[in-house]
Design a protein that fits this description.
alpha+beta, 29 strands, 30% strand, globular
């Protein structure tokens, strides 16, 4: 594939933006200012030679001025006219639906259909055609399937906001009830069953290409509040990352973040992607996030200027959303192809490094600052048929469940030792034990015939006075839900016995709070037990595998490979986790194990 950095610039002319209405009050002044902001955003992009996708909102469909501007700029600049399902709240909407709700995925299914038909019908009335793109903070599978069935022209959609879960909720004073963790960070083709999951085959293909709501820092956003770390200038201002040593308004972090996304071409066959989806609410004249209007406007202009510079240098291709959907499908014909991101710390200047991976079977993350420990795992293979909205069990929580998530269920470093979810390895020699989580390393990436290979820099453990040099290698089998782990001893240890314990400490859920675990089945080969919170353990010598079956997330997680023993262990009420693992003692050479996810039930 050719080396290509693709950017989508997306604007939505919200005439009653929720943020501005709450700050300034409702009325004609807000609508007029919103029109002026939309005009400013469009003019700025065009000034730097960039075309946009205009996501027309419900309120905008009642504005002749917006309609005419969109038509003119479609003809003059090639801007696409799409239809957003954001921006629903306006006098017309409230009068018709008698609600203050405005998130399409939170309505009951019948109301979702009614709103979609209303908005799409109004769009056709104004423009004489149906859109090829649509958008929201989140679009559940039901909504996507309904849109594609009834409005087949739609081929692209903004469908989720990456890692908008409990972390975002807590940084909004526990008031932002929109949970949508667990989806891809980059474009994907959603499954018909669950829109977070990449489609596994043509029959599973929802018919659209989905893009994230923002391109975000895949480390700072995961560790902290994502709203502060994204390629939308608003995020950088909100995170207060914009002063230089002279107190002047500069934001090298914003440019570094764009460049970090450009760098992802190295891991994705020459393709990389970035987007900015911007409403007008944050650019009002009174300022926002402790930033004056002058800085708000300057940051937007500077951001567009940087994209324009990259385009002029031949380093960027600007596309509309529908153009991107066609391009994406042309170079992503293999549904099982993994999306990869070896992500470095660009905010704090450390050597911290994550590796993100997503395909139709799983999404996972490795932390090389913890020796390559797995710190996030989502079982896409389960295709959990999760409904969302009023009348379901997930009115506001649209997140895809995790098996491992160190920020919600801790990791290696916990108050109560061993209670956190993580996948790592313990090494024992001369009566002393250390976890590879305590080591710091970096990784090298390779892609070889359907396999993604990560080779870690060697680390040295000193156990009982003996230095042991260990190298870890992880190989992900694309589309198989399987990861092979190799631990190699690189130095002469004089025949000393080294025991490796590969372990997986798991849970399930979407928040910090653990649901009942008594439906979990733990097993080693043919021996099984139900989870009972008593700390019981099954052990078997030279076993085929240890496993856990978690009905609530329709998943079986299994570990096997080189072993003297394998085990499965339940937690206690104070530590509601399960653990599966294998141990192997060697005096030289390497140990090879595997971890596999399968759909259960």
């Amino acid at each position: 594939m050719e080396n290509k950095f693709v950017v989508n610039i997306i604007h939505r002319p919200e005439l009653s933006p929720e943020y501005a209405e709450r700050a300034l009050g409702k009325g004609k002044g807000v609508r007029d200012e919103s029109m002026d902001i939309f005009r400013f955003q469009q003019d700025t992009a065009h000034k730097y030679g960039l075309k946009t996708t205009i996501q027309i909102t419900y309120a905008s469909l009642f504005s002749d001025r917006i309609i005419e501007q969109a038509k003119e700029e479609h003809e003059k600049y090639g801007d696409e006219i799409g239809l957003s399902l954001l921006g629903l709240p306006c006098p017309e909407f409230r009068a018709k639906y008698h609600t203050e709700d405005f998130c399409i995925w939170m309505f009951d299914d019948k109301t979702k259909e009614e709103i979609i038909d209303d908005v799409f019908g109004k769009f056709y009335e104004k423009f004489g055609f149906y859109p090829e793109s649509t958008s929201s903070y989140f679009l559940d599978a039901y909504t996507i399937n309904y849109i594609k069935k009834n409005y087949p022209s739609v081929k692209c959609a903004v469908a989720t906001c990456w890692e908008e879960g409990p972390k975002a909720y807590h940084t909004c004073n526990n008031s932002w009830y929109t949970f949508m963790d667990g989806g891809p960070w980059n474009p994907w083709i959603p499954s018909k069953v669950n829109s977070h999951c990449p489609a596994s085959c043509e029959e599973d293909d929802s018919g659209i290409v989905a893009i994230p709501h923002l391109s975000r820092d895949l480390m700072a956003c995961f560790d902290g509040n994502g709203s502060n770390f994204g390629t939308h200038p608003q995020n950088v201002l909100r995170g207060m990352i914009y002063y230089n040593d002279n107190g002047e308004f500069e934001y090298p972090y914003l440019y570094n973040l764009v460049d970090q996304y450009r760098h992802l071409a190295k891991y994705n066959d020459g393709y990389s992607y970035n987007m900015m989806f911007v409403g007008p609410g944050w650019l009002n004249q009174r300022g926002r996030w402790e930033a004056p209007y002058e800085l708000l406007a300057k940051s937007y202009d500077d951001g567009m200027k940087y994209y324009g510079k990259l385009k002029a240098e031949g380093k960027l291709v600007d596309m509309t959303m529908s153009e991107f959907a066609d391009y994406y499908r042309s170079c992503h014909k293999d549904y099982n192809r993994g999306e990869c991101a070896l992500w470095k710390d660009i905010l704090y200047g450390s050597n911290k490094e994550y590796f993100w991976y997503a395909d139709p079977q799983m999404r996972t993350c490795f932390d090389f600052n913890q020796g390559g420990a797995m710190i996030d795992l989502r079982p896409y293979v389960a295709r959990i048929p999760q409904e969302t909205g009023i009348g379901t069990d997930n009115v506001y929580d649209a997140s895809y469940p995790y098996l491992i998530q160190i920020n919600y269920r801790a990791g290696y470093f916990t108050h109560y030792a061993g209670a956190g979810t993580i996948r790592s390895c313990k090494v024992t020699c001369r009566g002393e034990t250390a976890d590879l989580c305590l080591t710091r390393t970096m990784a090298k990436y390779e892609k070889i015939e359907g396999r993604v290979k990560l080779t870690l820099n060697p680390v040295t453990l000193n156990l009982g006075g003996l230095d042991i040099v260990i190298q870890s290698v992880f190989t992900i089998l694309e589309g198989e839900g399987k990861i092979i782990t190799e631990r190699k001893i690189l130095n002469d240890i004089g025949g000393e016995e080294i025991t490796f314990e590969e372990y997986f400490t798991g849970a399930f859920g979407t928040t910090e709070y653990q649901a009942d675990m008594t439906n979990i089945t733990l097993g080693v080969d043919k021996d099984q037990m139900k989870f009972s919170y008593h700390g019981k353990k099954l052990t078997c010598e030279n076993a085929e595998s240890a496993y856990a079956i978690i009905p609530e997330v329709c998943t079986k997680v299994e570990m096997g490979g080189d072993n003297d023993t394998a085990y499965a262990e339940e937690g206690i009420a104070f530590s509601p986790i399960y653990r599966i693992g294998v141990t192997k003692t060697i005096t030289e050479g390497e140990v090879k194990t595997w971890l596999k996810l399968q759909k259960a039930n």
